[in-house]
Design goal:
The protein has about 575 residues and is α/β, with parallel strands linked by helices. It contains 18 helices and 18 strands. Helix content is about 45%, strand content about 20%.
């Protein structure tokens, strides 16, 4: 369907990928993963619009037809007063009108062949889109996404997540030869994420989806594309199987490395002895022997290079180094807080955040969580009170609120409080930025890189209460885990808005569930049970916990150089993965 041979592309001094080859097959669902800034979006853009990019290599399209696209951003453009159903009908009604216009033209044209050619093309498009059954198909898709109740609702009244799903449905109804979606899960609440899961799994065409969602990766895909360190690796199977395969490969490489190290030690000692002898006695035979052994030693050293998909460095995300204030001291309090725009979103909300406490604001899109967090940050509402000991800092999902896109990365970090070039470079390396990133403009960074830059700026502060609005959005899976570890280790308090199930259950002590204009507090344990009962099979939680435990123990065994124990644990992990 689409075949690439030795594709190479980069910007100025930055090479994104070199000599990558791949094939997109019909009716397959591909997940494209990789660390932030590796070029995933650029690769999909090259596939969509190859004429816009000066790449090396070959890109062949065979019977693909039109390529559909869904951006990671649910933009509200055009007429927002039309209903969801009318919006989804537009393409079919326009096609129907085009066919009628061509039929009318047939009676008056002198070039009937050209008109008949256009007519046949429109009929082919109608057949490909199953236009005769479009009304039935629209309602099926809305039902699949659990949006059937929104059919008569105006677009302007949809939440951002609901609008994103409706835009995805519209693209799917058009049935393109290939549908590309760039992080379609960003900012979706858990209900809408399940709707997206069902839309993906119910789609019969070819999908290529850039995603960092561990939930979607675990439930939707049978082909994984991993773009990393300039190379592309394809894996047939589930994401859990892929991670298991990577761990097993890591063990194999470490075992091979130990064997190589022993051989290198033996040959190095032999080379040293030969060099001593060659110095003492000048003989041609000794010289040839020495040269051969040195060449063999160099080949052994070259073999030790790690595969690019095995040793993937996780960012070292650091949050402010602060000491907790007096035990259980109250840092933030809301008393009878209310929020309204065209209608009331929140009314008489009261809660507090104490020193060292990690609190997650969770709920459906459009319930006012982000607006409330911004109000707390601005601290201009009499219902909001910070204590005298509180030193707040804010992370925004809207990067432009915190970052100046015209600044360089260096200028942003210096403005945040870093004092020396070496300090800036230390943080850039720790956050997995290329050392050459100092001079890059913020506007040139990927969404995930902008998130990492915001987090680096937070680290320069002395904040003891962090207000985080969707901090894991756009972050790759390795960075998400690093962020969760950093939040768990942070001694200050956290109040965060998040839709990421894994981030919530791995970080939060308390959940403030936003619903029906109010807030319902619950423990993280109760929240986890509620979500799993509604959306997962009964055994999934236990298997997920076991998998995470074994993966952690394998990593520790490898760090300790105990390959035998790592292999034993990996064999047990394989049994768990088979059940997932």
């Amino acid at each position: 369907m689409i075949n690439a041979e030795k594709l190479t592309f980069g910007f100025s001094s930055t090479l994104l990928f070199r000599d990558i080859s791949f094939t997109l097959e019909e009716n397959r669902h591909y997940a494209l993963i990789g660390s932030n800034g590796t070029g995933k979006t650029t690769l999909t853009n090259i596939i969509r619009e190859p004429e816009q990019y000066n790449f090396e290599g070959k890109l062949k399209f065979d019977g693909v037809g039109r390529i559909g696209y869904v951006s990671q951003f649910a933009t509200r453009d055009g007429d927002q007063s039309c209903t969801v159903y009318d919006y989804l009908c537009r393409d079919f009604l326009a096609l129907e009108q085009a066919i009628n216009d061509v039929c009318t033209e047939m009676g008056s044209t002198d070039d009937l062949d050209a008109v008949m050619e256009r007519y046949q093309a429109l009929l082919d498009e109608s057949s490909a889109m199953d236009a005769d059954n479009y009304e039935l198909n629209i309602r099926r898709q809305l039902q699949l996404a659990e949006l059937e109740s929104k059919e008569s609702l105006e677009l302007e009244k949809l939440s951002g997540g609901e609008l994103k799903l409706v835009q995805i449905i519209r693209q799917m109804l058009r049935r393109p030869g290939l549908l590309i979606m760039d992080e379609p899960d960003v900012f979706l609440d858990f209900e809408n994420l399940n709707g997206l899961r069902d839309l993906i799994n119910g789609y019969e065409g070819t999908l290529l989806i850039v995603t960092h969602s561990r939930y979607l990766l675990s439930h939707c895909f049978n082909r994984i594309w991993h773009l990393e360190n300039g190379d592309l690796q394809e894996f047939e199977g589930s994401f859990a199987e892929y991670n298991y395969s990577r761990l097993q490969k890591k063990i194999d490489l470490q075992l091979a490395s130990l064997s190589d190290e022993e051989e290198i030690r033996r040959v190095t000692e032999l080379v040293d002895r030969l060099r001593e002898k060659a110095t003492e006695v000048s003989e041609a035979q000794h010289g040839r022997t020495l040269k051969g052994k040195v060449s063999y030693l160099n080949r052994l050293l070259t073999r030790q290079i790690k595969a690019p998909f095995v040793e993937i460095r996780q960012p070292d995300i650091r949050l402010p180094e602060v000491e907790p204030t007096e035990e259980a001291a109250e840092l933030l309090r809301l008393d009878n807080y209310s929020l309204a725009f065209d209608s009331t979103l929140l009314e008489n909300v009261s809660f507090s955040v104490r020193s060292g406490e990690k609190v997650a604001l969770v709920g459906a899109n459009g319930t006012g969580k982000t607006s409330m967090l911004r109000d707390i940050w601005k601290n201009q509402n009499p219902s909001i009170q910070f204590s005298e000991e509180a030193v707040p800092a804010f992370f925004s999902q809207l990067h432009a609120e915190i970052l100046n896109e015209k600044n360089t990365v260096y200028e942003e970090l210096i403005a945040a409080g870093f004092e020396t070039n070496s300090q800036v470079e230390e943080y850039l390396v720790g956050y997995c930025f290329d050392p050459d990133s100092l001079g890059r403009k913020v506007g040139q960074l990927s969404g995930g890189e902008k998130n990492l830059l915001q987090l680096a700026k937070l680290a320069a502060s002395n904040a003891n209460i962090l207000l985080l609005d969707e901090p894991s959005s756009h972050l790759d899976t390795f960075a998400q885990i690093a962020l969760e570890d950093a939040i768990a280790a942070y001694k200050g308090a956290v109040l965060m808005v998040s839709h990421d199930f894994y981030t919530i259950v791995n970080c939060a002590d308390t959940i403030l569930f936003v619903e029906d204009g109010g807030i319902r507090p619950m423990s993280a344990r109760a929240f986890r049970k509620m979500i799993y009962k509604k959306h997962f099979s009964k055994d999934y939680l236990e298997l997920e916990l076991q998998k995470k435990d074994f993966e952690t123990r394998i990593a520790r065994s490898l760090e300790a150089g105990d390959c035998v124990e790592a292999q034993r644990l990996c064999d047990k992990l394989a049994l768990i993965v088979e059940q997932m």
